[in-house]
Automatic annotation (TrEMBL):
UniProt record, GO biological process: fatty acid beta-oxidation
Keywords of this entry: Lyase
Gene label: paaF_1
Enzyme class: lyase
Gene3D superfamilies xref list: 2-enoyl-CoA Hydratase, Chain A, domain 1, Lyase 2-enoyl-coa Hydratase, Chain A, domain 2
Family (UniProt): Belongs to the enoyl-CoA hydratase/isomerase family.
Organism listed in the record: Marinomonas spartinae
Keyword Ubl conjugation in annotation: no
Protein name: 2,3-dehydroadipyl-CoA hydratase
């Protein structure tokens, strides 16, 4: 069942801890309008607050994940309009989502769509996926993390090539470069992403949250600061019931039942 509060998203009810959110603006290849991005930020805020959601899977359609920011809407914005752009708040909100976010990507994943996919913690793509930052063809450049997250994901040379030529890479190149973790047959992308999400949903939510935060912190900082953060997070988890349960379950040779306490 999906939530009709949203007009450009299909937000499913969580099942076994996994909530699926599907971008749904087929008439414009899921181009991200300000309103659509706002809906996504809101859906993720709701997913954060909902204890029955442990993991979110974000996907598009069989043909496209998202073809970027909506160019027609962008054309109406001047410099002042961009300075006051509410999209920034939505991007920040999406980037702060603390639960695991898995992206299932088929077809075009371009511009703001690629930038959105890079907000996911795990990216799984069909063999038909195409990742690109084509903004240069419009006389602009990526503006939602494309020059920053992409270089961290694929390294300088490939990031430069993608951003400066605007040419997309295919799923195999994306896998080799480390942008995605797995390639599947296109018809299995969502199934595989749901499988990975289901595995994650069985773990302790507290451990998931701190492990995610620790990895993201490490990408943002020097090694010593990252290691200190990891040590604090590891120590905090020593005080949780989930740790007691995880260790007891291992010793008693039974599956753990984590409660998020
Ligand atoms: N914005 C608005 N509308 C878009 C769109 C976009 N980014 N991408 C596709 N559409 C619309 C098309 O205008 C077309 O609508 P009409 O039928 O009303 O004309 C419809 O979606 C189908 O698109 P095409 O006919 O172009 O489909 P195609 O299969 O021939 O080509 C494509 C697919 C290669 C993805 C092509 O649509 C394309 O190049 N899209 C633009 C990609 C792009 O430049 N993205 C970057 C945007 S800028 C950005 O993202 C900046 C940022 O975040 C900061």
């Amino acid at each position: 069942m999906s939530n009709s509060l949203y007009s450009m998203l299909d937000v499913h009810s969580p099942a076994n801890g996994v909530q699926q959110i599907q971008l749904h603006r087929p008439e414009a290849l899921n181009a991200l309008t300000t309103a659509m991005l706002g809906e996504l930020a809101l859906a993720l805020e709701e997913a954060e607050a909902n204890e029955s959601v442990k993991v979110v899977v974000l996907t598009g359609s069989a043909r496209v994940f998202a073809a970027g920011a909506d160019v027609k809407e962008m054309a109406e914005r001047d410099m002042v309009g961009i300075l006051k752009d509410p999209r920034q708040q939505s991007w920040q909100s999406i980037s702060r989502f603390p639960k695991p976010l898995v992206a299932a990507i088929n077809g075009y994943c371009l511009g703001g769509g690629c930038e959105l996919a890079m907000h996911a913690d795990i990216l799984i793509a069909g063999t038909d996926a195409k990742f690109g930052q084509p903004e240069i063809n419009l006389g602009i450049m990526p503006g939602a993390g494309g020059t920053q997250r992409l270089v961290r994901a694929v390294g300088k040379s490939l990031a430069m090539q993608m951003v400066l030529t605007g040419q997309p890479i295919n799923a195999l190149q994306a896998k080799e470069a480390g942008l995605i973790s797995e390639i599947t047959q296109p018809e299995l992308t969502l199934t595989r992403a749901m499988e990975v999400a289901s595995q994650i949903a069985k773990k302790s939510p507290l451990a998931l949250r701190l492990a995610k935060e620790s990895i993201l912190k490490g990408m943002d900082t020097d090694l010593n600061t990252g290691l200190r953060f990891e040590r604090h997070a590891f120590t905090v988890l020593a005080g949780t019931k989930d740790r007691e349960e995880g260790i007891a379950a291992f010793l008693e040779k039974r599956p753990a039942k984590f409660t998020g306490q």
